[in-house]
């Protein structure tokens, strides 16, 4: 799905017709895995690369479409939890912010 050079209206239509159905299908599955682990992360044993990957994806998507996480607040909370880990918090507070 190439969006470069398209109008804002085309981008919004593409978002609603292509991206949102994928969100509606996959986000509840992610939330179920998160809840089933019981650890606050995606695996019972604790934080893993999966948590970092999903947290970073959520952070990026939240910059473009924060309304997504009004319905899927568990994923935003997970992102905040990962980014609050002491090993990451200091780095994340000092790194250059990427404009959305």
TrEMBL record:
GO terms for molecular function: glutathione transferase activity. It is an enzyme of class 2 (transferase). Its EC number is 2.5.1.18. It catalyses: RX + glutathione = an S-substituted glutathione + a halide anion + H(+). GO terms for biological process: glutathione metabolic process. InterPro entries: Glutathione-S-Trfase_C-like, Glutathione-S-Trfase_C_sf, GST_C, GST_superfamily. This is glutathione transferase.
